[in-house]
């Protein structure tokens, strides 16, 4: 079934991270986790980062940290990595934090799985460092918005599928994304 869609910026804020100057040693060291694309290989929940920024860097440069439960999406270089932050953290400029505007319309877990089905490559631009998206193009991504009870049921069923697959060691990436599309009754975007 085709559910109504909304643009990503209607459903979420789109907050782009930042990298403090590497030439300022007072910005790097124990403090707050700082998420880079290479940290996004740990699965759905992002619990740790390789680097931290100091309280000074956070205060002077970064604004508010990404709140736990927020979906993040890489949109430069390694496009399309998705995760949900499990603790307050900051990110670099290749990652967009997507705080949901209205949790009665959209769940973070649903947004996570939906963004995994979106073909972001068709929206990319070529840059010196490789493929990129920009904030304007991210804002236009269309997200199917089923009724919340359907989303809740779909996410619960998917969790059950994943748990059974993990127990028998048979979960494959394509199966997971395909199963989400079936369970949530959404078509890949």
Outline of the structure:
Residues 3-149 form the Type I restriction modification DNA specificity domain. With 189 residues, this protein is an alpha+beta fold. It is built from six helices and twelve strands.
Number of strands: 12
Quote the distance from N terminus to C terminus. 13 Å
Mean pLDDT figure: 82
Number of individual domains: 1
Helix content: 25-40%
Provide the CATH topology. Answer: Adenine-n6-DNA-methyltransferase TaqI, Chain A, domain 2
CATH class: Alpha Beta
Main sheet makeup: 5 strands, mixed
Whole-angstrom Rg? 17 Å
Q: Supply the helix-strand structural class.
A: alpha+beta
Low-confidence stretches: 164-172
Number of alpha- plus pi-helical segments: 6
- The coarse silhouette is globular
Strand order of the largest sheet: 2-9-6-7-4
The assembly state of the depicted protein chains is single chain
**CATH homologous superfamily caption:** DNA methylase specificity domains
Name of the CATH architecture: Alpha-Beta Complex
Order of helices and strands: EHEEEEHEEEEHEEHEHH
Relative strand content: 15-25%
Layout of helices and strands, plus pairs?
Blueprint: E1 5-7, H1 8-11, E2 15-16, E3 28-35, E4 45-46, E5 51-53, H2 55-62, E6 71-74, E7 82-85, E8 90-91, E9 95-98, H3 108-117, E10 125-127, E11 130-132, H4 135-140, E12 142-144, H5 148-168, H6 173-183
Parallel strand pairs: 3-8, 4-7
Antiparallel strand pairs: 1-12, 2-9, 3-5, 6-7, 6-9, 10-11
What would you note in describing this structure?
There is one protein chain. Helix 3 (about 110-115) packs across helix 6 (about 175-185) and helix 5 packs antiparallel against helix 6 (about 175-185). The chain has one domain (about 5-185): DNA methylase specificity domains (Adenine-n6-DNA-methyltransferase TaqI, Chain A, domain 2). The longest helix is centred in the C-terminal third of the chain and has 21 residues, at about 150-170. A 5-stranded mixed beta sheet has the order 2-9-6-7-4, with helices on one face. The chain is built from 6 helices and 12 strands. About 30% of the residues lie in helices and about 20% in strands. The model is unreliable at about 165-170 (pLDDT under 50). Pfam families: Methylase_S. GO terms for molecular function: DNA binding. It comes from Nocardia veterana.
């Amino acid at each position: 079934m085709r559910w109504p869609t909304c643009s990503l910026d209607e459903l979420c804020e789109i907050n782009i991270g930042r990298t403090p100057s590497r030439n300022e040693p007072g910005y790097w060291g124990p403090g707050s986790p700082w998420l880079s694309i290479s940290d996004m290989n740990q699965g759905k929940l992002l619990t740790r980062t390789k680097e931290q920024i100091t309280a000074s860097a956070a205060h002077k440069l970064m604004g508010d940290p990404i709140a736990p439960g927020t979906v993040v999406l890489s949109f430069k270089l390694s496009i399309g990595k998705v995760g949900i932050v499990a603790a307050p953290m900051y990110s670099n400029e290749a990652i967009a934090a997507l705080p949901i505007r209205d949790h009665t319309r959209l769940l973070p877990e649903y947004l996570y799985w939906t963004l995994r089905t979106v073909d972001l490559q068709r929206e990319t631009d070529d840059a010196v460092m490789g493929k990129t998206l920009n904030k304007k193009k991210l804002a236009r991504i269309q997200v199917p918005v089923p009724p919340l009870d359907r989303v809740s049921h779909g996410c619960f069923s998917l969790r059950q599928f994943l748990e059974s697959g993990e127990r028998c060691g048979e979960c494959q990436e394509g199966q997971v994304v395909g199963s989400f599309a079936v369970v949530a009754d959404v078509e890949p975007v």
